[in-house]
Amino acid sequence: KAGVTQTPRYLIKTRGQQVTLSCSPISGHRSVSWYQQTPGQGLQFLFEYFSETQRNKGNFPGRFSGRQFSNSRSEMNVSTLELGDSALYLCASSSGTVNQPQHFGDGTRLSIL
Amino acid sequence: QKEVEQNSGPLSVPEGAIASLNCTYSDRGSQSFFWYRQYSGKSPELIMFIYSNGDKEDGRFTAQLNKASQYVSLLIRDSQPSDSATYLCAVNRGVGNQFYFGTGTSLTVIP
Questions:
Q1: Which residues of B touch A30 (CB under 8 A)?
Q2: Whole-number average pLDDT of chain B
Q3: Where residue A1 falls among pLDDT bands split at 50, 70, 90?
Q4: B90 to chain A: which residues are within 8 Å by CB?
Q5: What's the whole-number mean pLDDT along residues B41-70?
Q6: What is the pLDDT of residue A37?
Q7: CB contact under 8 A, B95 and A56
Q8: Are B48 and B36 in contact (CB under 8 A)?
Q9: Alpha carbon distance B84, B69 (integer Å)
Q10: Burial of A24 (0-12, 13-18, 19+ CB in 10 A)
Q11: B32: which chain A residues are within 8 Å (Cβ-Cβ)?
């Protein structure tokens, strides 16, 4: 069974630009969550999508948004990029039933110049 | 107060010893608890999860949960150099799949 696939693996952007990251969950998984990982803050929850609806949202500004498609694939968009947005962005999928384990993709490394 | 707290380490143990990793959480209503391993430059990999008080064993790994003390631990028996990584504790309050992660404990197993 294929794992969680994230594209692209690496991105370099400049301040003020916007970026879209993609995540394909494990087949049959309906929940996709996004996390930001930085050395100083660790893993921080951005949002979760389940059945094309945002089910949970973390404490990030509105510049961070996402969506989920009918095939459970998800995208995350960050607008007006700031230097502090440089991080590893991780996508995790699960069956969607609450309290089930999440499985992570390899992540997208975003660098802002 | 942080949702999930871990001793950042580093924790060093000799090969073959037992490594003990600890985690506390603040929300008494938390429902599920997870341990992930993260090698440098890689993404987190699920090791174990536990829902009920007590111990859960899987091979060399044992997860322990004490809800009254709001405490979760991971024991690694017969530690191997390949176990050297950062171990992340995660907690789910049971509202969807919003996991709260600790900052991780760095473990080094010395050959």
A1: none
A2: 94
A3: low
A4: 43
A5: 96
A6: 97
A7: yes
A8: no
A9: 28
A10: buried
A11: 99
Phi/psi at B80 (5° precision) = -120, 155
Mean pLDDT of chain A: 95
Residue A68 sits at the chain B interface (C-beta within 8 Å): no
Q: Closest Cα of chain A to B100: distance in Å?
A: 7
A105 in contact with B at a CB cutoff of 8 Å? Answer: yes
Q: Tell me, what's the pLDDT at A46?
A: 96
> What is the SS3 assignment for A50-90?
ECCEEEEECCCCCCEEEEECCCCCEEEEECCCCHHHCEEEE
* A83 interfacial to chain B (CB closer than 8 Å): no
**3-state SS assignment for residue B83:** helix
pLDDT digits (tens, 9 = 90+) for A53-101: 999 999 999 999 999 999 999 999 999 999 999 999 999 999 988 889 9
**What are the chain A neighbours of B98 within 8 Å (beta carbons)?**
33, 45, 48, 56, 58
